[in-house]
Amino acid sequence: MIVCVAVVGHQSFTEADDALKLHHIVHCSLDVVDERVNNPKKSGPTLNETFLGLLYPTENYKVYGYLTNTKVKFILVTTDLDVRDVDVRNFFRRFHAAYVDAVSNPFHVPGKKITSRTFAERVSNIVKSFGLSST
Amino acid sequence: RKPLPRRREIVNLREMGREVSESCIDSLLTEMVSSYCNHFYANKPELAARRIEAIGYQVGHQLSERYTMERPRFSDHLEAIKFICKDFWSELFKKQIDNLKTNHRGTFVLQDNRFRWLARMSLDPTADDGVPQDPADFAESKAAQAMSMYLYFPCGIIRGALSNLGIPCAVSADISNLPACSFVVRIKA
User: Fold this and answer.
1) pLDDT of residue A20
2) What is the ipTM, given to two decimal places?
3) What CA–CA distance (Å, rounded) separates A54 from A83?
């Protein structure tokens, strides 16, 4: 089950609607993202890919990262134990599309929290269908 | 009696449901420049220019988010500029930049030999007495200044897009070689 999805922009502003612990996990994972991106030797061929993969597993959660060309980070925290790589990639792809539509709103102020209800509904749908497709 | 559209055509119509005709965009741009130059900032062309450029900046910012969606991240400035010249320009204007030059010290010149948003403007390079003007002189003329108002928007778009890709810069337009239009990008250190 996905417990938290965070969008982190340039100013490290987070939009996560969960408890302090999840905030902490997300913040820690940001350090991992930075480390992955800034250490080319460690990352290898996936340096410039958007999908960063599993950032680190904690005892209860798995944290995945995704970094866009515009330096916006998506962090996914899930309690699922057996998560398929392809499902997470699909999730981020759909989430990215929803994010792009949300920031294309002329009334959205870049850097500020996304307040669109449509975005919230779309994310909700994406979260609900996470891992359910069997194709 | 018109035959019913075949299945493939129906699918295309559905995909096209969110498009807008090009003439609408042309009219919108014309009206935007006219509103800011003649109405909101009448007699203050510098303010009108800055406002129009700022609108372009926001548009470029948002478009770069959309058009870099499926792509891996750029490894350096040149990659990002090439993206602007090829994919980004194609999305906006259905063609690529025709010529890219750089001095390898942070300045890039993007030349479009037939810039779409100037294509519908009548540009008469003859002076009032009927004698053809030198294109470089034309660039200084009043007609050119009027035309340049339409270039602040695309300059802003380029600046907004590059800025969102982590490349702060200044962008200006050069119309000394019409009908070609060049966009000069100066990357800030």
Assistant:
1) 63
2) 0.76
3) 10
For chain B positions 21-80, those within 8 Å of chain A (CB to CB) are: 58, 61-62, 64-66, 68-75
Query: How many Cβ pairs within 8 Å bridge chains A and B?
Result: 44
| Residue matched to tokens 């009334």 | A107
From the list B58, B61, B68, which residue is nearest A69 (CB)?
A: B68
d(CA B184, CA B168): 13
Nearest residue of A to residue B76, measured between CA atoms: A48
Name the pLDDT band for B53 (thresholds 50, 70, 90). Answer: very high
Give all strands of the β-sheet with B99-102 in edge-to-edge order: B99-102, B107-112, B181-187, B169-174
HSE at residue B87, side-chain half, CA atoms within 13 A, is: 15
B72 CB neighbours in chain A (<8 A) are: 48-50, 69
Flag if A49 and B72 touch (Cβ within 8 Å).
yes
Q: Which helix (H) or strand (E) holds B90?
A: helix B89-93
Cβ A70–B72 below 8 Å, yes or no? Answer: no
Distance of CA B29 to the CA centre of its chain: 11
- The rounded distance, in Å, linking the Cα atoms of A79 and B123 is 64
At residue A51, what are phi and psi to the nearest 5 degrees? -80, 120
Query: Quick check: B142 and B127 in contact, CB under 8 A?
Result: no
Measure B77 CA to nearest chain A CA, in Å. 12
pTM listed for this prediction: 0.80
Confidence of residue B164 (pLDDT cuts 50, 70, 90): very high
